[in-house]
Amino acid sequence: MELKVALYRAKSWLRHQLTAWNTGGEGVHSPYLFEWVRMVMMDKNAYYIWGEIERCREKMLRDERELEFVDYGSAIKSRSLENGSEAAYSLEFRDVRRVCDIARRSLAKRKYAQMLSRLVNWLGSPLLTSPSRGGIGDETLEDRKGLTIVELGTSLGVTTAYMAAMDSRNRVVTFEGCEAVANIAKENWKALNINNIECRVGEIDAEQLTRDIEHLDVAFIDANHTYVSTCEYFDVLAGKVREKSVIVVDDIHYSEEMEKAWKAICADERVTSTIDLYQMGLVFFDKHYWKRHYTMRL
Questions:
Q1: At what angle do helices 48-62 and 179-191 cross, to 10 degrees?
Q2: CATH topology for 3-46+108-295?
Q3: Is residue 293 within a helix (H) or strand (E), and if so which, with residue range?
């Protein structure tokens, strides 16, 4: 890692530690968001499937198989145009990497992956989806079709498994640039007996991203780590949200570009509230939430 990048990340981490707070939800003005903090962020209950997924993670960390690795996420660059706007261009990057090295570098930490799992479970609860709560749908528990979840950046499929395993009725569509990595992810899902995941392989095309998705309830953006690509993906996904939907952006302090993208997302007029957890940023669209940005520790 370049010294400049390392210093930048150290500075952003220190700034977050000095400004973040976590008092179990106290200080969150919206009653709805207060409930979210208590039920999703602060809940320490474990689900039975988590142990199996973590054993899968440990297996990946010991797997020394070598793969031909294709990386679009770190190879997308942005450049300024004469009219002052920015455009992205692709520099496809290939090399050979071991599965264990990919796992160490790209898998979300356990506490963040489990938070995403709780988020999916909370959004899919019958209480939240009831019409009296202005929820996601008006289905009964018996005929509810489940949530629609979109993930950009499958990697080895551990985070995908955490989100998909909470309810087999949920539809999970995940995008991965590298076919060899996607194949490992599919092996993991098969071993975990998770069958509600659709993996789409290849460079992510924002225009085709949600072509067959009517709406989404959860989106996790962990793909091209640039300002242009992140904002473009968010804009497309935000066009498919419902009131209770949540978009999660990973690595929001990864670089100056990602911090710039995060600030642009926070300022978007469609967004009501945001939570900065340093590693991830959560974006809410519920009009019951007051327009405010929170910086917290998980």
A1: 140
A2: Rossmann fold (3.40.50)
A3: strand 292-295
